[in-house]
Amino acid sequence: MIKMYFLTAFRSLVRNKSYSLLNIAGLALGITCSILLFLVIQYQLSYDDFHQKADRIYRLNVDFVGRDFHTPASHYPLPAYMRTNDRLGFDAVTQIQGTAGAQINVPADGTRPARKFLEDSSVGFVDAEFFEVFDFNTGPLDLRAYFKEPNVVVLEQATADKFFPGENAVGKVIRYNNMYNLRVVSVMPDMPGNTEFPFSMLISYPTIQNSLPDDWGNLSSDHQTFVVLPEHMSAGTAAEAVNSFVAQQVEDENPNRQAVYSLQPLRDIHYNTDYFGAYAQTPITKEMIMAMAAVAVIILLTACINFINLATAQATKRAKEVGVRKVLGSSQWQLVLQFLCETLFLVMFATFISVILVELALPYLNELLELEIAFSLLQDPLMLLFLFLQVLLVTLFAGFYPAFVLSNFKPITALKSRMSVQRLGGVSLRQVLVVLQFTICQVLIICTFLVSEQMAFFRSKPLGFNKEAVVVVKLPQQTNQRIQPLRQELLNNPAVKNVSFASDAPSSGNMSYGNFYFNHAAEDEDFQTHKKYADAQYFDLFDLKFVAGKPYTNDSLQYMVINDTMRRRLGLKTPEEAIGKHISFGGDGQFAGAIAGVVADFHQASLALPIEPLLITKYPQGYGTLSAKIDMNQKQEALQHLEKVWEKAYPNDVFSYYFFDESIAEFYKDEARQNVLFKVFSLITILIGCLGLYGLVAFMAAQRTKEVGIRKVMGASIFNIAVLFSKEFIKLVLLAFVLAAPIAYYIISHWLEDYTYRISIGYWPFILAGLATLTIALVTMGSKAVQAALSNPVLSLKSE
């Protein structure tokens, strides 16, 4: 019986080739998008779920009472204090010091010359308990004993192959940042992409332990502590124990007395933007994951609507077939099953095509999103289950109503070909579905226009500094003694206009915060300030504008420069009031001086974030970047001169640079990806909708062949006939726009709330989106309408 149903379904679909191809194309596009989005969602939800104790692993974070400031950092002495107190009852305690890369030197060995590398991937300094807490595949060795010793390193396989191509890396020595000689004790498989610890190298924590601060006044998101809770302990109880313990141990020794510890589940780290760590992957909110799931459902829904529209449009064409089957004894449910089999056949074939399309599209998606998603259908039970459920649900959703309509025809009426379009409350269901379909299309188009407008705003908004023609080079450590000779040598070439040394550029991902004392007050201020260290040339090179005072000089006296936001937070009514006021910060007032100037506010990070209080002062030991203003007409000469001077000053280090304006674009990389995805999904949704429109107009043309012939004989023009076919659908597209506009406005308003600096939503994106959709619909309908109008009226009048 089932075999006969499928055989009959196959014959029916072959007889209606154009109808079948349109349905398969629409369904294949929808299913392809849903599979790709499912793969992205599955990947994003899998972060660090492979650790056996994942449900009991927590990170210690710090929140500041009364301040909107959170950090994944923990104080440096805390892990050691906890261990001396029997871990506070925790099963394990581990600390990680992460860095965003390293200078690696590989000494000469026999016939192989010495080589140097700039390792861009994150590097993790971990202790022995790291391997008790986490379950990374680190090879056959038990590394706990090795990581109790200094100067030990484990390399990822890809990193080992890069440093020692064709050699066994175990036992070899590498030099880290020209400071430590590290012995390779093991090579581990590459870290999975779905982890918050994307380390290409693991180095024993004792290697750097003596060089790290050992007081309670320092917090860095590079330094994080993780604990494993016993089965019976809750996160709240654990947090109370940690805070009580810290208060008992340090009392007045802790200047960060407003710092309170909280525990964050390991499984929450990838989805929480409040505690974004320095070496972690870019977080993605649960709302964004839900949005991707919604987009997948919407696109699939659009494809199903296509199917329903085309199937019900074909209903009158198959009326006689239904009448004959009923006269021969077929029951309604047998006919329903027959038509559902046809739908199932189409959905299965569309799914087969989709699997091929996913294989082709996935590499491009991985490149766009910078992910490592693999698609292995037979080795992924969850994907197989998803495909099975999707085929089943799409078949039922898309096929049940058309099957019910077709099977419900009365035999006598069907055989007389007097079938009419099914209506609900006087409105054709097909019309409702077309409106729904194009509402979805226009919502996506409007959102795409507005996201693109926000991206253009990011690129064009003045940032408060000059970012053009600036080359930034990361400095090796311990370079403060070479600053002045290096500056002079660089400026000897006229292609280099100015040189500045600083902790970082005006706008960067390097954010350093701290408490401070204002005007000799007994207590520190109730807010923290963002700190930058920079020489006197910094202000001129980046063209920072002073609203009061002037820059400091490079002499030995300590002065401060603050921004206008900090001036307002300090309660000073005018910028001039700030000049001469005293600021101090750091242990034992390490940094103390008068305010020399107030600069106009500039953006220190992404436009998604507000401008924060900022303090800039001199500190050569803290300079980590060299910025050079160059003549872009002599760009190549300037870069060659930079490299030549660098090689002379730092022969053991790799010269690497970037243009400052390009680094700012990195702030909006996620938004740029969203923009691309919006455009792709909008295009696919429109394409699916156009396939449906084309099919509906083609069917209408076939049904009204004689009418077209008569109208042409009576003198109707091609334009008249095109309007005849198009006017009904134009009304539906316009109605869809009326529904889509407020929906899109709500969605984009909610999205823009995440950005402190954003566009105001005007009416032009809505008008352009409406016109674009109408134009696409007219072209789709017009092509088929003109084809019908150009047909020979004699042949049209002979048609049955």
From TrEMBL:
Q: Where is the ABC3 transporter permease C-terminal domain?
A: 294-410, 680-785
Q: In the record, what terms sit under GO molecular function?
A: transmembrane transporter activity
Listed GO CC annotations: plasma membrane
User: Which regions span the lipid bilayer?
Assistant: 21-43, 288-310, 335-362, 382-406, 427-451, 680-702, 729-749, 761-781
Origin, by domain of life?
Bacteria
Q: Where does the record say this protein resides?
A: Cell membrane
One Pfam match, by short name? FtsX
Q: What is this protein called?
A: ABC transporter permease
